[in-house]
Prior knowledge:
821 residues, 7 strands, 5% strand, disordered C terminus, AB_hydrolase_fold
Amino acid sequence: MSPATPAPESGDAALELLVHGVGGATPQDMLDDPRTVRITGDRTAAVYRRTEDADAEDHPERYAGRPVPEAYCWSNLTSGDGTRALWLLLLPFMVANLAHWMRPPAPSGHRLARLYGVLVRLVALTLTVLLTAAVCEVALDLTAWQCAAAPACVDSASWLGFLSAERGGWWSAPGRRLAVAALVPTALVGLLWYLSNRTWSAYEAQRPPTGHDTPAEPQDVPGPAGPRAALGRPGFWYGRRLVARLRAAHTAAGFLTVAAALVTAAARHDTAAPGTGAVLGRTLQAAVAAFAVVLLWVVCRRGRSENHLDLRLERALVSWLPGASLALLAAAALYAGWSRPGWTSSGTLPGDAVFTALTVAQGALVVALGAVALLLQRPRRDPRTALYGLGGPAVAMLACALGGVMSGGVAQRVADWLDGPATPGMGDPGPRISPPVLLSWQASVIPVLLLLLAVPAALLVARTVLAARRLRPEVEADYGAGDERDPVRTGRIATVRARAGLTDSAPVLVGVVSGATLLLGAASVAGAWASGNVPGRAFDGAHPAVAALASATQALGSWMIGFGFLLFVTWGRRAYRDPSARRTIGILWDVGTFWPRAAHPFAPPCYAERAVPDLTWRMSSWTRRTGGRLVISGHSQGSVLAAAAVWQLEQATRRRVALLTYGSPLERLYGRWFPAYFGPEALDSLNRTVYCWSNLYRATDPIGGPVRVAGEDGRPAVDEPVLLDPVAYGRTRDHPLPEPILGHSDYQADPGFSHCRTGLLDRLPPAVPRQRGTGEPPEPSGKAPSGKASSGPGTCDPTAPEEDASGREGMDQGSSGRSSG
């Protein structure tokens, strides 16, 4: 059926729009029918129906009393292409981008909120510089500078023969070797720019419905004058301008890092011999510093624009920044390749100072970010907010740690490969290809970090075991087991419930890892300074036993950090070839890339910038054409997409839409970690925004949970009574075989699911016939369901009486009157 099919003159059309969760699903599984047809969309994301339902609007008599099921499949947005497995290498960028969205609530335009965004964007910029500096360390320092100057190293790596200083070829001059090696980090930055530009064109360019170009009614807080909810702002899912700006700035920063490495190496030699070369070196260093200041200004000056649909694009800035930085890099390469008789490569390039400065800068930015988060959290303290509002700084610290592990892993493994049997950075006999001492010190703290992490992990395991024992009487009471108690069955159900509660302990682990990482990172910087940044002298003067233990820890950490990087590469390679592994990585991206790229443009793209407009367009177009009732039904991550799409709807469309969520992380994960966007005020706004809403959850679900929206009487306004899982304790006539424990899956198999969906449809106003000659139905009067003011669990009850005239008037004003369940 084409979306342009005209609507019938009459009839009570009803539609159930299903949205799957993490990991994806096929339309055949979602619709429980092997014969499906694509209604609208493409191979990346599309809406499907059963073949027999393709023309359902033309035959409303077939669907009396039941909705037409329709499935929106978006799994190919995250895990469809094998090349997307390489996104795993962009994990630090993705984590840094998450930190932007974890800030505590604040009014729109608040100065501290803007400062928070600036600090996160600066952390993201340091990650780009760190990645580029790590590749420069490998290509320029370890390979072109140290290995090419060591005959033993060149003998073991014959492919470096044309750069060998011993053979005296044209490329053997130190500056020319560095200029050739600079092609590697330059190509990497260019690849990141290309991938970011390609995904920007496919994701950030998806415009929301054009009706959102005009101001809409407020929907955020009680009263008609409150601001819109953040996810309901017209420009929230259209970050085209900001991502283009940040992409240009980060690309320029990458090229500038390579240029700085070349200029610094050559200028260090020219300083000892005053002349034209020294003047040119100082000039280029000043140009690099001035360009760095410009980049900082570009990154700090402007954040996201969400209050309106920003269609502008700073084309001059987007093209000028990368072009100018690339020209400066070319000038630096020419300067480094200038003939300098007598210049030989010895020692190492000044990479220690660069990595030390980056580590100190990242630590200072994270501390400042924590201070701003505490100031933002103070006026609106919510006890359920993760880490008391410090979730963003903690996750930013994790992003820096991941960047350090990956950069250190690359340097350690390449140095080990070039060093032969020697241990990198330990001063062992051999060619002595030495990475920066700071990277070796950072490797030495990894075993300590793992030991620290083992303590809370062991406590959580013990607490889970005790919780499983404590839950046994509760399980038997829920099922009324009585004399039919089965200790084995009870134990399994109680254990699954206890394990599901581990999700709520995630903030503890994140806090421990982040805090320990910050302290151990400071210790590694101090250790590198104490050793004078000289390999093999880290423990001079210490007791022999202490020195031996520390050296062993450093060697173990060196191998572990290299193994961690190899694990990243191996996992990505396996996912490229294995669809099942690619699906696992897709689940990771389903959770991590829901948010737009607001801090780092090289992060994996935000699939919601395609999925949310898709859902919004579909709901708006279908309700306008048919005047029918619509239930958007979202499972797991699909419930988050459904909620975001409902926030974007116009008021006339919301009057015909009900929301059904199940296995939903809206409050349990998103509300705790992203309080500014899914906190208590935001979820209460969603309840008042949508016509009616019900939420289903299980105690055995490790992801979904209650949304905790309370009515005026204090009772749950949205959450239905917790579903029993399994549905039967033992064997019964209705369930002659043991029922499985479903946990997070297969909510539609529960009898309460269809009952809730029917109740929501019955509460929506009846379908309105299309006006002749216009093709669109008149706007409904919006008869409100009962119990909005003082409702408890009961949204799924289709027999509830209708509300009085005052409730209908409130619904027409868009400020109250929707079912609260």
